[in-house]
Design goal:
With 452 residues, this protein is of the alpha+beta class. 26% of the residues lie in helices and 24% in strands.
């Protein structure tokens, strides 16, 4: 049975209604696809895409969280295999006590394995380890015509494999996947922190030191002005060894602690996060950060997933929700980055979740976002006056610099801009057509951006 449900992305904007079913087996998922109807079908995980990537207005949405199960670790091959509806949280909790960690994790562990691959997620280690697609050893893909493909970067239909990695769920339903994993000695990281004075000093410090760390990320104060424009708090880390931990924690170095998340208020008034409240938060956060600190041991949960400590934090933006904007521009295009930061600061745009990273080698996925360069991700209230015009101007700057937007974060870009940013869309569409000749798989994002 399917039921009509109103769905949004994590940004809580542009809700649309779809029939929702929750298959628990590959066979149930295959049967559901045959009942898609004229508005098509789409797989959905835990709903952490920020925009409309996991919505299908008037269609059928397969809630794939039922396609979950215990991960299976092969220590001899350093691989973990799990059903695609399994969350990264469950996979991490399985791996860490056994001395392994996922190769890539985004800023939340509340994403499914299949969703992570469909968005080709990246993390704080992209400059060193690329995105999750680079670590997928194999995956099982169910297509709307009922075919089951076992794909990998070096076996099966490799074009379809890479069309699926970063393909936003539009080539088929991922039902299982195998990832390479890496060994760790503790459930902590050893963190170095530096507070920077402005954007140029931030960029310089990251460019000089990122190569020496596996993980690196910088929080940027986008409301600071004048000489302090773009000031930040840069944190870089390696996996910790037992000797790096305080004595009490050395007895159980692989114990995985996440803590109980605090609930966000069930309701927040409009404009709670405005120029003045966010500016006060940013100033307090910046001043509280150490000027220079070395070797602090932090639990992996706190370092990689700080926002997971607040359950439902997206409600803090009020009933209108928020827009996440993330772009990447090539190295050498720092002036574009400076222009965006200056534009946000000058507009008084209230973003307290602004993170800057350096990206490394991409995967071959035609729709995969990461490219070598600088990436900035930020959140803005959806009801911010002049937001649409401000972001359209940034789109033009990013496009002119040879950059692109992240489809898993996008909720408002136009098709012409995105097609110019992703010149391999036509070749991806040809591969997708082989897997889904009837055009069954569709999302609100795919319609808006004319991907299908």
């Amino acid at each position: 049975m399917s039921r009509p449900t109103l769905l949004t992305g994590w940004g809580r904007t542009a809700p649309t209604a779809a029939r929702v079913v929750r298959p628990r087996t590959l066979e149930q998922a295959a049967r559901a696809l045959t009942r898609a109807g004229p508005r098509g079908a789409l797989a959905r995980g835990l709903g952490r895409s920020y925009g409309d990537a996991a919505q299908a207005a008037g269609g059928l949405v397969l809630d794939c969280t039922g396609l979950a199960g215990p991960p299976r670790l092969d220590t001899g091959r350093a691989e973990v295999t799990a059903p695609a509806g399994t969350s990264l949280e469950r996979i991490i909790a399985h791996l860490l006590p056994r001395g392994y960690f996922v190769p890539v994790t985004p800023g939340t562990r509340h994403v499914t394995l299949g969703g992570a691959i469909a968005a080709d997620v990246h993390g704080k280690n992209h400059h060193a380890d690329s995105s999750i697609g680079a670590h997928v050893r194999s995956l099982t893909l169910l297509t709307p015509v009922g075919e089951v493909h076992r794909l990998g970067p070096d076996h099966g239909d490799t074009e379809l494999f890479w069309a699926t990695v970063g393909g936003m769920g539009l080539t088929g339903v991922i039902t299982e996947a195998t990832l390479g994993v890496h060994p760790v000695e503790t459930a902590h990281v050893r963190v170095d922190t530096d507070r920077t004075d402005d954007l140029d000093s931030t960029l310089d410090l990251m460019a000089r030191t990122d190569h020496a760390y596996r993980y690196t990320v910088c929080w940027v104060d986008l409301l600071a002005r004048g000489a302090a424009t773009g000031r930040g708090v840069l944190t870089r880390a390696h996996h910790a060894r037992p000797a790096d931990l305080p004595a009490p924690q050395r007895r159980e170095p692989l114990r995985y602690r996440t803590g109980t998340p605090l609930p966000a208020p069930p309701w927040a008034p409009p404009r709670l996060l405005n120029r003045w409240t966010v500016s006060a938060f940013n100033t307090a956060y910046y001043n509280a950060a150490p000027r220079r600190r070395r070797g602090q041991a932090q639990p992996v949960g706190g370092f990689f997933h700080p926002l997971d400590s607040v359950r439902g934090w997206n409600r803090m933006y009020g009933p209108r929700g928020f827009v996440q904007y993330q772009f990447v521009v090539p190295f050498g295009e720092e002036d574009t980055l400076r222009a965006v930061v200056a534009g946000l600061s000058g507009a008084g745009a209230p973003s307290f979740l602004a993170v800057l990273k350096r990206m490394g080698e991409p995967t071959p996925g035609p729709l995969s976002f990461p490219r070598p360069g600088w990436t900035l991700a930020l959140d803005l209230p959806a009801d911010l006056p002049g937001l649409a015009r401000l972001l359209r101007g940034f789109d033009e700057l990013v496009l002119a610099a040879g950059g692109r937007l992240y489809l898993a974060k996008d909720s408002r870009a136009d098709a012409e801009t995105v097609h110019a940013m992703y010149p391999e869309i036509p070749s991806w569409q040809a591969t997708r057509a082989r897997a889904d000749p009837g055009g069954v798989l569709v999302s609100d994002l795919a319609r808006r951006l004319r991907l299908v």
